[in-house]
Specification:
Helices cover 40% and strands 15% of the residues. With 393 residues, the chain is of the alpha/beta class. Strand 3, helix 4 and strand 4 form a beta-alpha-beta unit. The protein binds pyridoxal-5'-phosphate.
Length: 393
């Protein structure tokens, strides 16, 4: 029997699944400071700087509001949906993976009449078809995932944003995987609500939803949504009015972490960070291909933050992941829904979007696969990754 008073032994892992990824040490350190009460005058700088830093990270306009909601990233998605629609409103959702299904579920739970535009897993939704649906019969809200972690596919958003702007339809985008890993141009693509998390490409732990709201979305928040805690009109008012803050909402430790994560991201520079993610996935993919493995999804639409690999015939999907974890301390992940058992997902996010992490996962995977009788040329994967990493992009 386990002694409940024994210290929890947290094993050291290289987190290269679909998230969380390994946080920046500086973020964890920032979170270790004593929390502040939200009405402490010293907290004002924390709130103001977070608004400023998140606006920059989301490339949002000067009138957008950047803030955060305590909870998993999906708390931010749910807050947005609950606060922008009334029961019976039509919500148009683009679905090309698991997180598109989540948007449908959230909208349904809040009473929406959900209409969907679907794409097969492995490709994005046709942006023109989605835009056409918006123009023909404008919904109250259009919602779509920018980069769906379940399929590793990137959704083009410009045409969709344009249609939303022309028709005054609000556009909600799940940017949980994409922010910090590839371009998320909230103002340029007319995104009204963008939601991210710290745990994918921003170098922090899970537990905070980072958000950006356009002035149009701010003006259309429901005064009495069917949620109290996730009511964005309340959250935004509270965030913007220090005098009324009161001591509540004391998730300042998460906000310390978010602030440090964003400082690191903006200090590196958004474009350098996107280039780093692109370089890491190029090296990983060259290695995977050289090992004789096949990747999943339409090549031109693949995101640089996660790589989907088809499980070879006769190889035990679960066994490989377990062996990689136990013998190498590396986590890669299984897939959802129609891809379950058929695909592994390898993330190169945040601190792990770098050559050393890519080399480590490739050599671990090679060793595990070889031990299970998969015929491959030893060393081919890491050699190919090395060769690609030495080329100019
Ligand atoms: C991880 C992820 C989420 C959910 O994040 P949680 O913090 O677990 O709620 C939502 N959307 C996408 C695209 C993700 O990758």
């Amino acid at each position: 029997v386990r002694d409940p008073l024994a210290p929890l032994e947290v094993p050291r892992r290289l987190l290269m699944g679909s998230g969380p990824s390994n946080p920046e040490w500086r973020v964890l350190q920032a979170m270790a400071a004593a929390p502040l009460a939200a009405d402490d005058p010293a907290a004002a700088e924390l709130f103001d700087s977070l608004t400023d830093l998140s606006r920059q990270a989301f490339q949002a306009g000067p009138h957008a509001h950047g803030f955060a909601v305590a909870g998993a990233s999906r708390a931010g998605l749910e807050a947005a949906i609950a606060s922008l629609i009334e029961p019976g409103d039509r919500v148009l959702v683009g679905v090309y993976g698991h997180f598109g299904e989540l948007l449908c579920t959230l909208a349904e739970r809040h009473g929406a009449q959900v209409e969907r535009v679907d794409a097969d897993w492995g490709q994005p939704v046709d942006p023109e078809a989605f835009a056409q649906r918006i123009r023909t019969r404008p919904p109250r809200l259009a919602a779509i995932v920018h980069a769906d972690t379940s399929t590793g596919i990137l959704q083009p958003l410009e045409a969709i944003g344009r249609a939303c702007r022309e028709t005054n339809v609000l556009l909600l985008v799940d940017a949980v995987l994409s922010l910090g890993g590839c371009e998320v141009n909230t103002s340029g693509w007319s995104i009204d609500v963008a939601v991210a998390g710290l745990q994918k490409c921003l170098g922090g732990p899970p537990g905070l939803a980072l958000m950006s709201l356009s002035s149009a979305a701010l003006g259309r928040l429901s005064p009495r949504p069917d949620t109290a805690y996730l009511d964005l009109s309340r959250v935004v008012h509270w965030w913007r009015s220090p005098a009324e803050r009161g001591p509540a909402e004391m998730y300042t430790s998460m906000l310390f972490g978010a602030r440090e994560a964003l400082r690191i991201v903006l200090d590196e520079g958004l474009e350098s960070r996107w280039a780093r993610h692109a370089a890491a996935s190029r090296a990983l993919r060259a290695g995977i291909d050289a090992m004789g493995l096949r990747r999943f999804g339409k090549e031109q639409s693949q995101v640089p933050m996660i790589t989907l690999v088809n499980v070879p015939d006769g190889i035990d999907e679960v066994g490989v992941r377990q062996q990689l974890l136990v013998e190498h301390g590396i986590e890669i992940m299984a897939a959802f829904g129609p891809l379950r058992g058929r695909v592994w997902r390898i993330g190169t996010m945040g601190t792990n979007a770098c050559l050393p992490s890519v080399m480590t996962v490739l050599s671990g995977l090679e060793t595990v696969l070889a031990s299970r009788g998969f015929g491959l040329a030893r060393g081919a994967g890491v050699d190919a990754a090395r060769a690609v990493s030495r080329q100019r992009p």
